[in-house]
């Protein structure tokens, strides 16, 4: 509904309009009152959350406009107008930052032509070679723009718009009245917005919008005038102050929290400004001055702060909304755009003009809104675009000058629109011809250069304050490149004029650069400072993309080329001076040459010669128009002679040669860098390549002999060329000089060779562009096979960043994928190896030698001569033919004669092998050339005839067999052979000389026979291996069948395996020790093995510490403990309160655990301690600022393994096996057996007489043996704050020892209930423990003890006390009765035999024989267990925590779980391909866990644990976790390892005894109950598969038993019954309990060291077979499951477990996550879309969760849970840990909860995988997305289409699953020591 006042208003406007009296003033008068009312911020509001009544705004402000404009219902009108150009033929969608954009490399005019995702998906380009990237915002979709695409201009959506017949002018189709109304409104809005958004110092609001005195009057709104008195403090963005400075300032100035300050700063950065205070004038001014003062320290410009009236702000806000509104309207229809551009262009574009002029005065958002408006309003229409382009060009200079002074990014400057205008060829050509745009741009640029002239040369100072302005001005060069992007097809006089005007200014710029940054060779001392060079190269790189375009334009028209060349000659002439004309005469042979006087080794030389290089570029095109250098048209004053022309370039070449000769050593890195870039592929096209070209041009203009003398002279080698050099000159010079001369000669020969042989430039050789690219590729692939990206990077790019590689690559190379590597490589096709040119001028020295080694090896392998003779070069083009004459001229012959002759003389020193090699190559080229001329019947070139003068053949012959020529003997042979071949061409009579024959014979051919033998051998080995595998497979099948006879009888389809011959099975079973049993009475005991380790630090060997403690020093492994959530089956569960968490068992959903890993490298404990202390000291000394980049954190006791650099945070002691004592007892009579029921009865007896003391309920006088009490009496370790006991504790302390009398163990069941006798004689450890004493209280019922502490109030009690405090509170003190007590009770209840057997379990020799560890070992053990506790829980140190042993056992269980899952994940049998690292780690960990009770501070802790766990398992109780919440394997581990020590005074150890088998059975049963309770009907018609017959046969088997068990369990728990076929249920159970059995298998294998059956290490995993194999190994009944659980007491347990209160509700819970259902589920990383662009699309709309509606800049997805985060951004930083004032990024924060501090993420826009760990460490690794060449593209730099690679992704998954992320990070951080430290916690 329309508001009545609005209706009235619109009526009034309508009436005025009809009278023709309506104007903008009417609207503005209304706004004057309404706008402040709606958009004024209210005083003292929360400036971070200023909300306006948008509904009201729409109703009162926008509705009237729309209604008036449309003269009725706006929706109808919009619909109608839209219809007129529906569908549109142009897309024009404006990109936001981060939107994906698609370019087409086949069809795009240039790389700036892009499509939006929608258009792309609907276009033909999706099947072309497209490129994907993400927009930085500001551009728009070019779909439908004919000048952007060569083909496929329209997508399927927009092509429809093209097909609809467009009316000439849509404006004619709508009523003129409406056009007028729209016109009026647009006009009004534009003027208003322009006036209000143009911010300037001292800005005041237009008069007609002011709040006046009259607004006080009662008729007006009372509030309006009040608004006038409210002010805001507005803070503006600048690029001078850092985020942190702004945040700091805000915190002080408006006293807000750090979090709010961050929010303000973020908002300022996004919007460009932000209101930080809203109050009265005084308060606001106060804030302003505080902020200015804060930020102006040290002479810096202060932050821009402004105090403004709120109603002005209101108008500005409204104006900005109006622009958005207008933009949306313009986007919707062409009609609106036409009216809009009409207004804009009205007075020659005054609005555009004023926006351009005031652009830098506005804040970010306002600017961007205007720019978007121009795009949507002006750029969609050809004519408007032209108009806009003209205005833009007119004001270009002013605009750029403003931009330089401004500090905002180019992308938010109006200048950034240049790319939209200049890239359109028609507009560009128009602007060149009519607006003199080139000159305008260059003049603007030159005016900035003029400020930097020094002796008419540009002198760019790196550190000067103007650097940034010079950097900013270089954006002009991009615009220049856009304008010249497409050369004109048709030239007009205006165009020529415009182009040449710009060209003349470009020449001025190049003249300024000619010889800039000159260098003088430093002699004596080193350079004092490194001269600046980077700025010049930066400028060069930008110009290097402009100059080829200029050349192309100039070369496309004869007139332009003529004039351009003349102007160039003139410019060169102007640079010449007197000095450059000085000459002297040099003589060689009969030639006397007038040379330019210059000495490169003492006078300045520059690498920057753009003017000379332009000559080279243009000269190549002269021939096309029948022109040449000497044409009369170019006779201008000062035109350089050919010698003068090449002189600057030649000097550069000589300088580089001298650098190679070591003559410029003292000039430092500046020079080295310049030379590097001179040759580098990014720069060389306009440097090295042009220089070679220019020298080649000069070679055609100068007589060959003179030319060579000129060069020889510049190289300062005139003396060298004299016959008597060695005699008269060389001897006198020092050694340094001699070496230099040798190298200079090499360099000279190389240069000559380059000039005569490099012909792959179109215009110089008879080649096309493609041949040039092919040549580059061939040379590159001769170095080594290369992946696509590397090859592409090594090739020079054209102006559109294309290398042209794809066009030719398939012709010259094959793409090969190596196995196991996703990345493929290009390999040169064999036929192209003959094109290899060892002296290719683009090779670096490394590439040259690498390729030579490679090619020689290849040739050797192929049995060819071991040399790389010169390839046949293509012929020169006509203008360059003269160059070949060099190869037969007298000076050339003289030079080669000189080298060859000196080579053959024994004592000469001025020659080298390299000289010989180069001379032979030169001869080779000459011979190739003669051959070519001969075939063309051209007698001009006749090298062999000319060479007779110097007797070349005999010179060569003399070198054959010479000791100096051995390296190149094959090349020499090749040359002589070739020589004869060429000779034979002309004279048929000649025959190959004897000498050459001899040489040829000496060349060995390859041994073909041996190669084929090798091949056969390999094939044989492969066949053998295959046979072995097949045999193994068969035997395994057979074993499987044999083991499971009953099973196979039940299953109908088992006939075929009978084919396998019987004897083979027998044989195998004999060989393999298949009946290994790890635990129970039938345990297979193996002789204990002595293991020897070598310490990686001192390299001494040592045997493992044994019982007597004398042999071997204690050793440790570096280990890493990490808290983990990797195996979690419920990610909504977190370990929230690690300080108080009860660690008795691992939770059933494994939502947390502590993982232990090790690299398996052993060290002496002493050596390690020393190493670790060193590391710590070194790190502490390191300056703080370098710490964040460390790959390990000493604060968390991290260090790197000294050998392999694996990350560690503790040391795991290496301990001996546990069964050595039992093995020694083998001959003794076996211990009496104890049945499972009797054993259980014994355990129940323990529970019956246990004592539980709960802290709260404990009367103070009973303060017997509290933890705290003993804590106080023990010495406090360093680093631990002393815990103060409670009063009760203190009291207890005094009673210590009261009842503690030393006594020996009462054997034979001494009665007597008074306990408290601590045996001091059993172990040394026990001696240290003070005797305990005190009275007992009756055990409370379970219900009195809160097992799970739901919510403990945190903050109470000091950290260090928490653990013991909580233990007292929650767990209480659990104390067992004594063994004799239990034994006597048991004897009474059953028989004395049972009691004896029970006693023997705990007190037999096997159970209690424990090595006597030296104190150092005990200390290491204690340290390690404490580390597990600390790192595993992330808690503070507390050496006395009772959770320490529990954590060790939990970690053991968790680590085994992890290993089991990783093995299963890669489809491996239990022990298959375990690395020695994994084996060593687990072996050490399990053994340690077995000995863990020895190192606890109080043995009672262990006793308590055992009693509690027994109670949990056997008694249950509703306050305990129910069976479904258990991780039964962790119960097994803890119980197995703690039960032997349950009785006071007895220290026992688990050895795989009968008791362990019983525990295994009980836990197994619990697991089966879990499975049966959570069984779910698969719902498929499986039951159809099971036929009646099989049902009957399995009646007596496990199936029916399980079915009845399930019914029993489910009815007890009140869970609905499920009907299931027995076989089906049996399969289910077997499948699902395998992982439990595998864990048990691992555990007991490493505990007892009983060798595992072969099958567990087989390369083929057959789960079903493994199941039976494990049953046997674990000493269980193999044929049937059922007997394992047949004892009635077990059924009682089942009843107890199932009737637990929570079982039913858990299974039936609505939140399915509450209950584990898939017990064997392996967690996967989130599934990612196959096509990478899909992933980008899905996140392109992802808003930052912290700021309302803004897009996130770095959207990052957690690969573990799939959550999307706004990473690396201030907006989403959180203070963490709370109260620490340390801010962390969203990823770090998320990783803390999701992955317990470790995280794996994908940064979507950059296609990078981010790994994080331990808050301050992280790294990027390769993403799983690969392009067609199997390569990744981190950061989307190449933009090839990317697809998910399953193998790569599964590698990441495996890394995560195996807990290797922290290690990967450490390794990655260690290997790239980048200077800039990433602050990973901010990501
Ligand atoms: Zn589009
Ligand atoms: Zn389209
Ligand atoms: Zn295309
Ligand atoms: Zn050592
Ligand atoms: Zn290591
Ligand atoms: Zn954010
Ligand atoms: Zn997550």
From TrEMBL:
<dbReference type="InterPro" id="IPR055194">
    <property type="entry name" value="UBR1-like_WH"/>
</dbReference>
<dbReference type="Pfam" id="PF18995">
    <property type="entry name" value="PRT6_C"/>
</dbReference>
<dbReference type="GO" id="GO:0016567">
    <property type="term" value="P:protein ubiquitination"/>
</dbReference>
<feature type="zinc finger region" description="UBR-type">
    <location>
        <begin position="89"/>
        <end position="160"/>
    </location>
</feature>
<keyword id="KW-0808">Transferase</keyword>
<dbReference type="GO" id="GO:0071596">
    <property type="term" value="P:ubiquitin-dependent protein catabolic process via the N-end rule pathway"/>
</dbReference>
<feature type="domain" description="UBR-type">
    <location>
        <begin position="89"/>
        <end position="160"/>
    </location>
</feature>
<dbReference type="Pfam" id="PF02207">
    <property type="entry name" value="zf-UBR"/>
</dbReference>
<dbReference type="InterPro" id="IPR003126">
    <property type="entry name" value="Znf_UBR"/>
</dbReference>
<dbReference type="GO" id="GO:0008270">
    <property type="term" value="F:zinc ion binding"/>
</dbReference>
<keyword id="KW-0862">Zinc</keyword>
<dbReference type="GO" id="GO:0005737">
    <property type="term" value="C:cytoplasm"/>
</dbReference>
<dbReference type="Pfam" id="PF02617">
    <property type="entry name" value="ClpS"/>
</dbReference>
<dbReference type="InterPro" id="IPR014719">
    <property type="entry name" value="Ribosomal_bL12_C/ClpS-like"/>
</dbReference>
<dbReference type="InterPro" id="IPR003769">
    <property type="entry name" value="ClpS_core"/>
</dbReference>
<dbReference type="GO" id="GO:0000151">
    <property type="term" value="C:ubiquitin ligase complex"/>
</dbReference>
<comment type="pathway">
    <text>Protein modification; protein ubiquitination.</text>
</comment>
<feature type="region of interest" description="Disordered">
    <location>
        <begin position="1257"/>
        <end position="1378"/>
    </location>
</feature>
<comment type="function">
    <text>Ubiquitin ligase protein which is a component of the N-end rule pathway. Recognizes and binds to proteins bearing specific N-terminal residues that are destabilizing according to the N-end rule, leading to their ubiquitination and subsequent degradation.</text>
</comment>
<dbReference type="InterPro" id="IPR042065">
    <property type="entry name" value="E3_ELL-like"/>
</dbReference>
<feature type="compositionally biased region" description="Basic and acidic residues">
    <location>
        <begin position="1259"/>
        <end position="1268"/>
    </location>
</feature>
<protein>
    <recommendedName>
        <fullName>E3 ubiquitin-protein ligase</fullName>
        <ecNumber>2.3.2.27</ecNumber>
    </recommendedName>
</protein>
<dbReference type="GO" id="GO:0061630">
    <property type="term" value="F:ubiquitin protein ligase activity"/>
</dbReference>
<keyword id="KW-0833">Ubl conjugation pathway</keyword>
<keyword id="KW-0863">Zinc-finger</keyword>
<feature type="compositionally biased region" description="Low complexity">
    <location>
        <begin position="1289"/>
        <end position="1304"/>
    </location>
</feature>
<dbReference type="InterPro" id="IPR036390">
    <property type="entry name" value="WH_DNA-bd_sf"/>
</dbReference>
<comment type="similarity">
    <text>Belongs to the E3 ubiquitin-protein ligase UBR1-like family.</text>
</comment>
<dbReference type="InterPro" id="IPR039164">
    <property type="entry name" value="UBR1-like"/>
</dbReference>
<dbReference type="InterPro" id="IPR044046">
    <property type="entry name" value="E3_ligase_UBR-like_C"/>
</dbReference>
<dbReference type="Pfam" id="PF22960">
    <property type="entry name" value="WHD_UBR1"/>
</dbReference>
<keyword id="KW-0479">Metal-binding</keyword>
């Amino acid at each position: 509904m329309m508001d009545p006042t609005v209706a009235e208003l619109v009526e009034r406007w309508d009436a005025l309009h009809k009278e023709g009296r309506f104007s903008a003033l009417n609207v503005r008068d209304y706004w004057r009152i309404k706008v402040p009312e709606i958009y004024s911020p209210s005083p003292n509001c929360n400036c971070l959350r200023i909300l306006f009544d948008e509904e009201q705004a729409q109703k009162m402000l926008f509705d009237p406009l729309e209604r008036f404009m449309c003269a009725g219902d706006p929706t109808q009108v919009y619909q109608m107008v839209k219809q007129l150009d529906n569908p549109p033929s142009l897309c024009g969608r404006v990109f936001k930052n981060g939107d994906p954009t698609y370019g087409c490399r086949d069809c795009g005019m240039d790389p700036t032509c892009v499509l939006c995702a929608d258009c792309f998906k609907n276009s033909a380009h999706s099947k072309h070679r497209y490129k994907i990237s993400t927009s930085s915002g500001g551009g728009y979709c070019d779909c439908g723009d004919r000048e952007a695409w060569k083909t496929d201009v329209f997508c399927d959506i927009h092509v429809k718009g093209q097909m609809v017949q467009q009316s000439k002018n849509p404006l004619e189709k709508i009523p003129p009245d409406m056009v007028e109304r729209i016109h009026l409104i647009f006009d009004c809005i534009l003027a208003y917005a322009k006036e209000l958004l143009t911010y300037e110092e001292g800005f005041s609001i237009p008069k007609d919008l002011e709040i006046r005195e009259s607004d006080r009057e009662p008729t007006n709104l009372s509030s309006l005038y009040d608004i006038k008195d409210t002010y805001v403090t507005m803070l503006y963005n600048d690029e001078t102050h850092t985020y942190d400075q702004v945040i700091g300032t805000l915190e002080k100035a408006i006293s807000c929290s750090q979090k709010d300050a961050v929010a303000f700063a973020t908002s300022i950065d996004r919007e460009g400004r932000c209101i930080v205070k809203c109050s009265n004038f005084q308060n606001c001014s106060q804030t302003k001055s505080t902020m200015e003062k804060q930020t102006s320290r040290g002479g810096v410009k202060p932050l821009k702060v402004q105090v403004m009236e709120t109603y002005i702000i209101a108008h500005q806000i409204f104006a900005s909304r109006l622009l958005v509104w207008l933009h949306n309207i313009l986007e919707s229809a062409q009609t609106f755009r036409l009216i809009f551009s009409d207004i804009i262009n009205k007075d020659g574009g005054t609005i555009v003009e004023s926006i351009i002029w005031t652009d830098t005065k506005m804040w970010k958002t306002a600017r961007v809104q205007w720019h978007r408006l121009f795009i949507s309003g002006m750029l969609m229409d050809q004519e408007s675009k032209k108009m806009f382009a003209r205005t833009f060009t007119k004001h270009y200079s002013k605009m750029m000058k403003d931009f330089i002074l401004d500090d905002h990014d180019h992308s938010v400057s109006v200048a950034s629109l240049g790319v939209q205008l200049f890239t359109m060829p028609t507009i560009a050509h128009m602007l060149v011809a009519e607006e003199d745009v080139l000159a305008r741009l260059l003049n603007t640029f030159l005016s900035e250069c003029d400020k930097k002239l020094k002796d008419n040369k540009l002198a760019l100072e790196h550190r000067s304050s103007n650097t940034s302005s010079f950097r900013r001005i270089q954006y002009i060069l991009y615009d220049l490149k856009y304008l010249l992007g497409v050369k004109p097809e048709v030239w007009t006089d205006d165009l020529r004029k415009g182009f040449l005007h710009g060209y003349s200014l470009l020449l001025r710029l190049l003249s300024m650069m000619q010889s800039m940054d000159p260098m003088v060779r430093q002699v004596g001392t080193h350079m004092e400072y490194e001269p600046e060079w980077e700025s010049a190269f930066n400028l060069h790189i930008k110009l290097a993309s402009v100059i080829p375009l200029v050349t192309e334009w100039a070369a496309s028209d004869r007139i332009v080329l003529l004039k351009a060349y003349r102007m160039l000659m003139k410019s060169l002439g102007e640079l010449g001076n007197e000095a450059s004309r000085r000459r002297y005469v040099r003589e060689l042979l009969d030639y006397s040459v007038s040379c330019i006087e210059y000495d490169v080794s003492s006078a300045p030389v520059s690498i920057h010669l753009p003017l000379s290089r332009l000559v080279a570029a243009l000269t190549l095109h002269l021939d096309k128009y029948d022109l040449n250098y000497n044409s009369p048209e170019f006779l201008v004053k000062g035109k350089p002679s050919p010698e003068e022309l090449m002189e600057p370039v030649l000097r550069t070449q000589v300088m580089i040669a001298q650098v190679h000769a070591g003559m410029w050593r003292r000039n430092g890195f500046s020079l080295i860098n310049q030379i590097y870039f001179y040759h580098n592929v990014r720069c060389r096209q306009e440097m090295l390549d042009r220089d070679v070209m220019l020298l080649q041009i000069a070679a055609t203009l100068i007589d060959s002999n003179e030319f060579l003398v000129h060069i020889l002279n510049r190289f300062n080698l005139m003396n060298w060329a004299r016959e008597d050099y060695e005699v008269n000159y060389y001897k006198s010079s020092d050694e340094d000089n001699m070496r230099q001369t040798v190298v200079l000669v090499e360099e000279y020969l190389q240069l000559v060779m380059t000039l005569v042989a490099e012909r792959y430039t179109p215009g110089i050789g008879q080649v096309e562009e493609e041949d040039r690219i092919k040549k580059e590729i061939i040379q590159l692939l001769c170095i080594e096979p290369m992946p696509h990206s590397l090859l592409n990077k090594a090739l020079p790019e054209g102006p559109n960043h294309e290398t042209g590689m794809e066009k030719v690559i398939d012709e010259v190379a094959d793409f090969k994928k190596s196995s196991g590597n996703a990345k493929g490589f290009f390999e040169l096709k064999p036929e192209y190896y003959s094109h290899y040119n060892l002296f290719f001028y683009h090779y670096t020295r490394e590439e040259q030698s690498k390729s030579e080694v490679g090619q020689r090896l290849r040739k050797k392998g192929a049995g060819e001569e071991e040399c790389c003779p010169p390839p046949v070069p293509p012929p020169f083009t006509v203008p360059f033919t003269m160059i070949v004459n060099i190869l037969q001229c007298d000076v050339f012959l003289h030079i080669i004669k000189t080298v060859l002759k000196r080579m053959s003389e024994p004592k000469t020193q001025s020659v080298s092998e390299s000289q010989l090699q180069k001379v032979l190559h030169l001869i080779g080229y000459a011979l190739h050339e003669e051959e070519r001329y001969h075939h063309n019947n051209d007698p001009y070139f006749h090298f062999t005839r000319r060479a007779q003068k110097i007797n070349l053949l005999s010179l060569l012959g003399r070198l054959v067999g010479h000791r100096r020529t051995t390296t190149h003997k094959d090349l020499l042979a090749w040359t002589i052979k070739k020589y004869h071949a060429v000779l034979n061409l002309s004279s048929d009579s000649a025959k190959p000389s004897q000498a050459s024959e001899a040489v040829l014979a000496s060349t060995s051919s390859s041994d073909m026979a041996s190669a084929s033998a090798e091949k056969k051998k390999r094939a044989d080995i492969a066949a053998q291996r295959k046979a072995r595998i097949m045999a193994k497979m068969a035997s395994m099948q057979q074993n499987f069948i044999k083991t499971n006879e009953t099973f196979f009888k039940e299953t109908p389809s088992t006939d075929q395996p009978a084919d396998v011959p019987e004897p083979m099975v027998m044989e195998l079973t004999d060989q393999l020790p298949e009946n290994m049993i790890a635990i129970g009475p039938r345990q297979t005991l193996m002789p204990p093995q002595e293991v020897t380790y070598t310490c990686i630090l001192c390299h001494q060997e040592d045997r493992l510490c044994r019982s007597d403690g004398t042999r071997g020093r204690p050793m440790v492994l570096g280990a890493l403990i990490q808290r983990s959530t990797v195996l979690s089956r419920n990610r909504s569960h977190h370990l929230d309160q690690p300080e108080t968490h009860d660690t008795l068992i691992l939770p059933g959903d494994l939502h947390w655990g502590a993982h232990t890993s090790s690299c398996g490298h052993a060290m002496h404990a002493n050596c390690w301690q020393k190493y670790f202390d060193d590391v710590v000291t070194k790190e502490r000394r390191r300056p703080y600022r370098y710490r964040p980049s460390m790959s390990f954190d000493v604060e968390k006791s991290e260090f790197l393994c000294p050998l392999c650099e694996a990350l560690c945070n503790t040391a795991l002691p290496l301990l001996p096996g546990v069964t050595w004592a039992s093995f020694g007892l083998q001959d003794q009579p076996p211990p009496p057996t104890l049945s499972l029921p009797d054993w259980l009865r014994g355990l129940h007896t323990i529970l019956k007489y246990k004592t539980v003391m709960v802290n709260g309920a404990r009367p103070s006088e009973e303060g017997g043996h509290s933890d705290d009490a003993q804590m106080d009496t023990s010495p406090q370790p360093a680093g631990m704050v002393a815990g103060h006991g409670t009063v009760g504790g203190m009291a207890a302390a005094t009673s210590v020892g009261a009842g503690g009398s030393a006594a020996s163990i009462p054997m034979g069941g001494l009665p007597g209930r008074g306990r408290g006798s601590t045996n001091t004689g059993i172990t040394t450890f026990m001696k240290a423990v003070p005797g305990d004493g005190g009275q007992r209280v009756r055990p409370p019922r379970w219900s009195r003890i809160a097992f799970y502490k739901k919510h403990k109030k945190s903050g109470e009690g000091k950290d260090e006390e928490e653990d013991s405090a909580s233990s007292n509170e929650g767990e209480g003190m659990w104390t067992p009765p004594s063994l004799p007590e239990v034994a006597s009770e048991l004897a009474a209840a059953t028989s004395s035999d049972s009691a004896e057997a029970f006693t023997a379990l705990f007190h037999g020799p096997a159970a209690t024989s424990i090595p006597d560890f030296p104190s150092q070992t005990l200390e290491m053990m204690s340290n390690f267990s404490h580390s597990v506790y600390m790192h595993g829980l992330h808690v503070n140190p507390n050496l006395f925590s009772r959770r320490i042993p529990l954590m060790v056992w939990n970690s053991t269980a968790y680590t085994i779980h992890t290993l089991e899952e990783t093995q299963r994940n890669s489809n491996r049998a239990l022990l298959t391909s375990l690395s020695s690292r994994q084996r060593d780690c687990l072996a050490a960990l399990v053994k340690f866990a077995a000995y863990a009770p020895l190192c606890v501070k109080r043995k009672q802790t262990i006793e308590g644990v055992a009693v509690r766990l027994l109670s949990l398992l056997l008694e249950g109780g509703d306050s305990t976790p129910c069976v479904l919440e258990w991780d039964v394997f962790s119960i097994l581990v803890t119980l197995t390892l703690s039960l032997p020590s349950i009785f006071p005074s007895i220290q026992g150890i688990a050895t795989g005894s009968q008791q362990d088998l019983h525990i295994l059975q009980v836990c197994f049963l619990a697991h089966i109950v879990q499975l049966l309770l959570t069984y779910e009907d698969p719902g498929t018609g499986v039951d159809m598969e099971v036929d009646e017959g099989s049902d009957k046969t399995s009646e007596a088997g496990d199936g029916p038993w399980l079915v009845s068990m399930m019914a029993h369990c489910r009815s007890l728990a009140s869970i609905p019954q499920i009907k299931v076929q027995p076989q089906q249920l049996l399969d289910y159970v077997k499948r699902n309990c395998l992982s439990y059995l595998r864990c048990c298998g691992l555990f007991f294998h490493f505990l007892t060291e009983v060798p595992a059956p072969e099958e567990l290490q087989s390369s083929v995993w057959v789960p079903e077979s493994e199941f039976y194999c494990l049953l046997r190994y674990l000493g269980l009944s193999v044929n049937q499951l059922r007997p394992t659980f047949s004892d009635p007491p077990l059924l009682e347990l089942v009843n107890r477990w199932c009737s637990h209160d929570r079982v039913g509700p858990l299974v039936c819970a609505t939140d399915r996550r509450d209950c584990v259902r898939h017990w064997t589920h392996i967690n996967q990383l989130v599934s990612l879309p196959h096509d990478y662009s899909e992933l980008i699309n899905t996140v392109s709309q992802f808003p930052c969760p912290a700021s309302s509606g803004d897009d996130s800049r770095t959207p990052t997805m957690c690969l573990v849970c799939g959550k999307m985060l706004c990473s690396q951004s201030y907006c989403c930083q959180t203070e963490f840990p709370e109260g620490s004032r340390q801010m962390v990024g969203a990823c770090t924060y998320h990783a803390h909860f999701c992955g317990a501090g470790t995280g794996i993420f994908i940064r979507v826009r950059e296609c990078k995988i981010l790994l994080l760990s331990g808050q301050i460490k992280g790294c990027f690794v390769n993403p799983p997305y690969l392009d067609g060449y199997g390569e990744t593209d981190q950061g989307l730099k190449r933009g090839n289409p990317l697809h998910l690679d399953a193998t790569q992704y599964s590698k990441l998954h495996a890394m995560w699953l195996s807990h290797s992320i922290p290690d990967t990070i450490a390794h990655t951080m260690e290997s790239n020591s980048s200077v800039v430290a990433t602050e990973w916690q901010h990501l």
